[in-house]
Design a protein that fits this description.
By secondary structure, this protein is of the alpha+beta class. Among the domains are: 37 residues, Pleiotrophin/Midkine, N-terminal domain (Heparin-binding Growth Factor, Midkine, Chain A, Single Sheet); 54 residues. It has 2 helices and 7 strands. Strands 1, 2, 3 and 4 form a 4-stranded antiparallel beta sheet that branches. A 3-stranded antiparallel beta sheet has the order 5-6-7, with no helix packed on it.
């Protein structure tokens, strides 16, 4: 009987300690959290060069915060890393300019970024001419 009472007492102490630890974590989260809901976020600023890990600053009334962020090294610098677009296929090559173009429609603006609704990009035409006969050779046996 005494063993059972001792076991019950230990179980109650363990539950009480766990509950108290949970309260402390919740209180810390409340202190770190903000009641402000109208945050304005700046662009992601890389720690070095023009891509990789960095930080983004945000303000809301009298409060300010810094968040970690990452700029992929293959991002479209002219649009900003926070503007995501859905692009069409590349158009044909212009003989006059030597460029091909395509356009993109805004899919998502992250962190209240100011993004253009439609963007146009160009790239040089390929100097290599792809031969269709190579692709057909391996497709079947005669």
């Amino acid at each position: 009987m005494q063993v059972r009472s001792l076991f019950l007492l230990l179980a109650l102490i363990l539950v009480a300690a766990t509950t108290e630890a949970g309260k402390n974590k919740k209180e810390k989260a409340k202190k770190d959290g903000s009641k402000c809901e109208d945050w304005r976020w700046g662009p992601c600023v890389p720690n070095s060069k023009d891509c990789g890990l960095g930080y983004r600053e945000g303000t809301c009334k009298d409060e300010s915060k810094k968040l970690k962020c990452k700029i992929p090294c293959n991002w479209k610098k002219q649009f900003g890393a926070d503007c995501k677009y859905k692009f069409e296929s590349w158009g044909g090559c212009s003989a006059q300019t030597g460029l091909k173009t395509r356009s993109g429609i805004l899919k998502k603006a992250l962190y209240n970024a100011q993004c253009e609704e439609t963007v146009h990009v160009t790239k040089p035409c390929s100097s290599k001419i792809k031969s269709k006969s190579k692709a057909k050779k391996g497709k079947g046996k005669d």
